Amino acid sequence: MKKIITLFWILLSSGIVYGQQTIDYILKARAFTEAGKPEQAINLLDGAISVTKESRLYTERAEANVLKGDYSGAISDFNEANKITPFSGEYGLSRIYALKGDASTALYHLEMNLNSKYKKGEKEIMLDPAFSTIENRQEWRQFWKKEWYSITEKSISEIEYFILAGKIDESKEVLAELKKSYESNTDILYAEALINLASGKYPEVMKVITGLNNLNPGNEKYLRILAKAQIGVSDPAGASTTYSQLLSSGVADAGLLMLRADCYRKTGETDKALSDLTKYLEIYPENSAALSLAGKVEAKSGDNLKALEYFSKNLKLHPNDPECYIDRADSYFVSKTWDLAINDYSMSLDLKPANSDVWLNKGIALLNSGKVEDACHDFRRSFHLGNKRVTDYISRNCIK
Fold it and tell me: Which end of the chain has the least Cβ crowding within 10 Å, N or C?
């Protein structure tokens, strides 16, 4: 509790809790909720709400109250969110009343959601476990007799499903049928961009999405696709700008910090990358991918000792992850600390023996330690696993 209060006043003293500060609170509270600590999330949001009445703070606190089992508190919060931003709390209210077994009230609020700009997709609703308590009720079956989604919406949902399943040809067939019935519009162009993205046609994606974004600036789904396409054409600088647009527009997704940090790493902007990673690790201090990326950024900046700190911390938190051993081994490898590199590569191979690159690097480390016979054993293991890069090492060191 003392830590939460301290965090609140630190953030408050650096600026009024609105805009980016609001996002910071939402992200931190969400991390507490995801970790099964709703009380801590609620305490944090209580402080933020005492300063500013922002609808997203209420909906986030409502979710923490749901996890806590305080449905009355959650209903109150969702209703407050609706007062500030109409319809923003309707889906949450629908879920709570479904959990309470009140089908008619749940469906009333679900209808309100489906007629608003916060409309949820059919698949998301059908897969939401909150509705399992009423899905066999007559009211539920009657509700879904009405066509709540247009043919275009259903087709795009089907295309998204096929793409997720790796069925690109099937997604193209759905798009072709859609084009037969409708003239080109923003929804069809969006669907086409999704398919092109999945097909690796990144320039085509960028052309279409840039046009859509000009019509609807700041659209989250357009910007996310654009960033992926920019990464696809090896334009991390452009992608970092796009991720900055998403973050500055108020999208509450900590994952964007990780994505932007990786872009900054590729462009050599290590200070910016570390700034994003530090912020991410304040929210998710034990995240393996973030600790790994932070170590790699430090290593790229030339601070191998700091990189080792991140890698060692990651190993302590995730001792059964072979990638954590590889990260630290690679760092030792760069500093030519061969014995320590060999030890970590060995631990990684104990957990994942089919990694041909690790066998190669371990062999090189052994070779530099003067252990030629052991190195040749590892080179041959790497070769048998399909690594062709090892052939030169074998020919120069292992054929007598």
Answer: C
pLDDT in tens, 264-292: 999 999 999 999 999 999 999 999 999 99
Residue 28 lies in a domain: no
Encode pLDDT of 360-393 as tens digits. Answer: 999 999 999 999 999 999 999 999 999 999 999 9
Cβ proximity of 109 and 124 under 8 Å: no
Three-state SS for 47?
Answer: helix
pTM: predicted TM-score of the whole model, two decimal places: 0.88
Residue 59 CA to residue 63 CA, distance in Å, equals 6
Q: What angle do CA 377, 378, 381 make, to 5 degrees?
A: 90
Tokens representing 110?
């679900």
Triad 341, 343, 344: Cα angle to 5°:
65
**Tokens in use for 262?**
């990786």
Return the axis-axis angle of helices 288-301 and 270-283, rounded to nearest 10°. 160
CATH number for the domain including 328? Answer: 1.25.40.10
Question: Read out DSSP for 242-258?
Answer: HHHHHHHTT---THHHH
3-state secondary structure of 289: helix
Write the CB contacts of 43 (distance below 8 Å, at least 6 apart in sequence): 1, 4, 5
Domain count, the chain: 1
- Whether 160 maps to a domain, the answer reads no
**Inside any domain, residue 386:** yes
Is 381 within the bounds of a domain?
yes
Separation CA 43–CA 39 (nearest Å): 6
Work out whether the CA dihedral 27, 30, 34, 39 comes out positive or negative.
Answer: positive
Determine contact, residues 87/118, Cβ cutoff 8 Å: yes
What's the CA gap between 370 and 350, in Å, rounded? 23
- C-alpha distances (whole Å) from 11 to each of 7, 8, 254, 274 are 6, 5, 17, 20
Structural domain containing residue 393: 319-400
Say which amino acid occupies 127: L
Per the structure block, which two tokens stand in for 49? 């709400």
User: Dihedral sign, CA of 243, 246, 248, 252?
Assistant: negative
Q: Would you say 196 and 168 are in contact if contact means Cβ atoms under 8 Å apart? A: no
55/60 Cα distance (integer angstroms): 9
